[in-house]
Amino acid sequence: MSMQDDAVQTFTPRDFHRQAHDALGNPQIRANFRKAMDGLMTKRHDSFGDWDLETLRELGANIRMRALAKLPELLEQLEANCQANGIQVHWAEDGEEACRIIRELCEARGAKAVIKGKSMVSEEMHLNEHLEAAGIEALESDLGEYLVQLNQQTPSHIIMPAIHLNTDEISDILHDKTGTERTRDVDYMTAAARSQLRERFMAADVGISGVNFAVAETGTLCLVENEGNGRMTTAVPPMHIAVTGIEKVVEHLRDVPPLYALLSRSATGQHVTTYFNMISGPRKAQEHDGPQAVHLVLVDNGRSRIYQDDELLDTLRCIRCGACMNHCPVYTRVGGHTYGTTYPGPIGSILMPHMLGLEDTKDLPSASSLCGACGEVCPVKIPIPDLLVRLRREAVGEGRGNVPGAGVKRNKKEVAAWKSFQWLATHPGAWRSGTAMAGKLNMLMPSKLGSWTDHRTAPKPAKTTLHALIKRHRKQRSDV
Amino acid sequence: MAPVKLYPPKPDKVYFYGTCLVDIFFPQAGLDAIRLLEREGIEVIFPDDQTCCGQPAYTSGYQTEAREVARSQLGLFEQDWPIIVPSGSCGGMMHTHYPQLFAGTKDEALAKAVAGRVFELTEFLVHVCRLKLEDRGEPEKVAMHTSCSARREMGLAETGPMLLSKLGQVELMEQERAAECCGFGGTFAVRHPEISAAMVEDKTQAIEATGAKRFVTSDCGCLMNIGGRFEHQEKTLTGEHIASYLWRRSS
């Protein structure tokens, strides 16, 4: 099937249920994700080998918590040290402002062509659309991002943007959009994409990348990647713009190795990635290559509001490894696009409500069985299940109101149902007679229970409750 | 992962907290759990005024309602005896979330004290009772589903299988992706029924593929979900709470 024959599909978190229904009914999506996630889980597991993973996670969590505890001063230190290194620093309160800053930097150089390394923050702020509207072409150079862009889609995973596509689909996209041969030869396709991109690196006026760790004490920007496209993006064009969320700062250079060890293993099961770039400024007078100008755009976009709340703050520890989605039984079944948000899966469900508001994202925090797999694998020990519950609380107006759209899900019917539950469960006499009656009449449980019984039989209340059984049991024992 | 827990010596008396699902749907599992404990020479106290731990409201975000229900349970355990819960889910609620739920309230100390005395049934049978079992049943292949709350929230992936391994005639069958959720998740199964259905379908397939004739679990939510799926498909494979299975085969 040729993907370009389909109308461009758009996804929104408002339609989570419909999108989930569609994904569950799509055998291709189901198979692609199951296979990919199984592989990633195994690789992660094997890569940690006999390391004391718990101690390393504890260390990772502590590094991130320490950085967040000092965030305002570390950001100032980062700015000062970057500027001392010749990196110009810009602050953006939201995505729109970040887009404007980047566009103006491009326009000031008369840039027409931008090459991009992988950056989820740039996805978050829809940078490509913004630049294109201003007549600046932005081309993705990460292979997965490139494919997704060719196919007019968005990433379905934060580390592997094209994980929803299989080899045949990729072959079709490259054939339809770039004229390569139809093939299942992965090396051929990779080489074709590489040569297509190589020319574009040379011709680009500006390179835009993300940042994995911004080191405050040295003013160094660390970029983790496998394809070399990150190094090309940041080294070949005359100007490099790095864009990142304000939470990516770490205090010391020595904080980087443990986080990097956790990141590469948690994300792809690699002991090291093929490239690890440390960017510490533009080309110096005596140097022959590297960009003439380097800019860092620090984006808030809701992060400082998250920062104000001592529980929600843990969300900002994230180092964007994607392990939570790889291990999520819901993500594995519905895929990334179903969430309709830049960041899908468990981390998306605790992050996106702050960026988009609960009006649009109210179905995301509930889309979890709270199985805890995400929290178990998180390399920086974000208590994701607890934060999902916290956001459920916010959605029904039982939280602290620190999330946009708090209370949007509260409705009289549900409140009345939980109030009734509360009354019954706090009146043991009524509970005993009510549950006893349920068993006798089977009245609480009709044989059809909405969607539960589409796939399962209805649970039937036992004829005798445990309370009643115990009464008999006590009598038998005292009779003996 | 739960922090390292120190276990007390075997006590003379324990409280038994049956849970609402056992009370209403699987009372025999509760009674069998009590019999297992009594056979170990422990007197089992069942506070009559127990209802529900409050978890359904808690995970739905209804904090106020959950706290009121939980508060009504806190007073049921006056003596300093262990509280045995035949569920990792309700056990996890009481052990892990009660202290959070009452943090900063006048009941904080009580909630912490109660939480510290909560043991999941298989945990208690293994680590405190050091249960020995004489298997009187026929040879049988059985699969086990350990609930996510038992496995991750309470750190008890091993206690169920350890108990089954004490049954000489029982062969525990390994299933693919044993650690993956069955898709119950309380109100998750109601709010996202199709995703939940896809999950339980995979779980039943994995269990069936082991060749086991029966599966056991230590949580009645999973039992209702997985068992209900098998029954809906009119499969002969049936499920049972591990307490009933252990009691039936050793009595």
From TrEMBL, chain B:
Entry-linked InterPro entries: Cys_rich_dom
GO cellular component assignments: cytosol
Protein origin, superkingdom: Bacteria
Domain spans labelled Cysteine-rich: 15-94, 142-226
Gene Ontology MF, one: oxidoreductase activity
Pfam families (UniProt xref): CCG
Name of the featured protein: (Fe-S)-binding protein
